[in-house]
Amino acid sequence: MEKLKDLKVVFMGTPEFSVPILEMLIENTNVIGVVSREDAEVGRKRILTPSPVKACALKHGIKVFTPHRLKNEYEDILNLSPDIIITCAYGQIVPKIVLDYPLYGCINVHGSVLPKYRGASPIQTAIMNGEEQTGITIMYMDESLDTGNIINYDFMPIEDTDTYGTLSNKLSILGRDLLLKTLPKIIEDDNFNIKQDDYEATFTKLIKREDERLNFNKTTEEVYNYIRALNPNPLANTLVNGEEWKIIESKIGNKGNYPIGIISHVYPDSFAIGCLDGELLVTKIKPAGKKEMLVKDFFNGFDSKKLLGIEVGK
Questions:
Q1: How many domains, in total, are found in the chain?
Q2: Model pTM?
Q3: Residues 266, 170 share a domain
Q4: Which domain range does residue 242 map to?
Q5: 8, 63, 170, 196: which could join 83 in a potential S-S bond, CB 3.0 to 4.6 Å?
């Protein structure tokens, strides 16, 4: 591992998912700079807040760059003369001049087993689609999105109870460990360099505000998976009496024919919404203007029978 200690690394990343990977690199290599997104306004008070990756780098006294547009603001990175650039959920396309610069190339840690689920939301989309497993790919970067040659990969099961939050945390650790195991092989040029099969490729999109609204004209399993995929952020939602309620947790209820999108039953710990093949039981919510709460706690100060017959989404 002595060679790793001398490896000059520039790391590029933004969310919490990337932090364990950065921390591993700080411990095992010479991280000479970090690139992350610009500080963003967070919360109701719109407080300007650094990204988790930037906060981690500053804690360790590492120089951080936050270019508005990397394609025009990359000189500071090249001036560091990195041996390798490692990216993980950074959020901008890396220009060719940067890709071509480091001795050992630019590599990316991606949250799926490529070529499946290229793009911005691989973890969420895997859960939405009811996949039984996913994984991590370490790949060389090229000018297109997640199309570079594969260096290494590993699989991980998706549990029925996994959310975006829990699965993201587990994949982050898998990515950290896989990268540590793979880096020496990259330096020694003893690694796989496998071209992706574009024919098998699937793509994911950036999840936008309009994607958060639930569609109950689907099976209970599909709606259940969608809620898990957006938990803990940005959270799925629907309208109840014209007010937006965040739907945080649910479970699959009785099968059968129920009016789609109608609250058909109220139980002590949940209320049921009709889907294509049965009832979806909503167990945790965030009503408009209120905090997150279990439905059973919400019912303590609310006449639950008032929900019966309401058509949600309107």
A1: 2
A2: 0.95
A3: no
A4: 210-307
A5: 8
Exposure string (b/e) for 130-153, b if CB count within 10 Å is 16 or more?
Answer: eeeebbbbbbbbbeeebbbbbbbb
CB 115 within 8 A of CB 212: no
Helices 164-187 + 19-28 axis angle, to 10? 30
Helices 19-28 and 52-59 meet at what angle, rounded to 10? 30
Looking at 178, 204, 230, which one is the last position of a domain?
A: 204
77 lies in the same domain as 178:
yes
Quickly count helices (H) and strands (E) in the chain: 9, 17
176 DSSP assignment: H
- Examine the domain organization and report whether 130 and 88 are in the same domain: yes
Alpha-carbon distance of 225 to 131, in angstroms, equals 10
User: Of 169, 25, 168, 199, whose CA–CA distance to 107 is shortest?
Assistant: 25
**Phi then psi for 147, rounded to 5 degrees?**
-110, 0
Q: How many CA atoms lie within 13 A of 194 on its CB side?
A: 14
